[in-house]
Amino acid sequence: MAKMITIEGGEGVGKSTQAERLAAWLRERGHEVVMTREPGGSVGAEQIRALLVQGVTERWEPITEALLHSAARRDHISRTVLPALERGA
To answer: CA-CA distance, 65 to 19, in Å (whole number)?
Structure first.
């Protein structure tokens, strides 16, 4: 049975380091691991991420930024996460 593990935390607290360690440990045990990120993780979501992280921070109204995050998440889930889980990764 496939599992999805998320690692949460603020900027610079070591999420990537811990995720890499966990992925290596799981791979050593024969599991297929798909590492991804949010916002991002698929072609469309990465394009939306660029809109969110580049440029002046005040350029989006809060609701617009929330909608962009939601759009990125939807693309990421449908194109990256669900296909990986369906194949047992």
So the answer is: 26
Q: Is this model's pTM higher than 0.90 or not?
A: no
What end-to-end distance do the CA atoms of the chain give, in Å? 9
Which tokens is 33 given? 């691991």
- Mean pLDDT, the chain, whole residue set: 94
Type of residue at 55: G
- Provide mean pLDDT across the span 62-72: 97
> Residue 73 contacts by C-beta under 8 Å, 6 or more apart in sequence?
38, 39, 45
| 87 close to 1: Cβ distance less than 8 angstroms | no
User: What local confidence, expressed as pLDDT, does residue 57 receive?
Assistant: 83
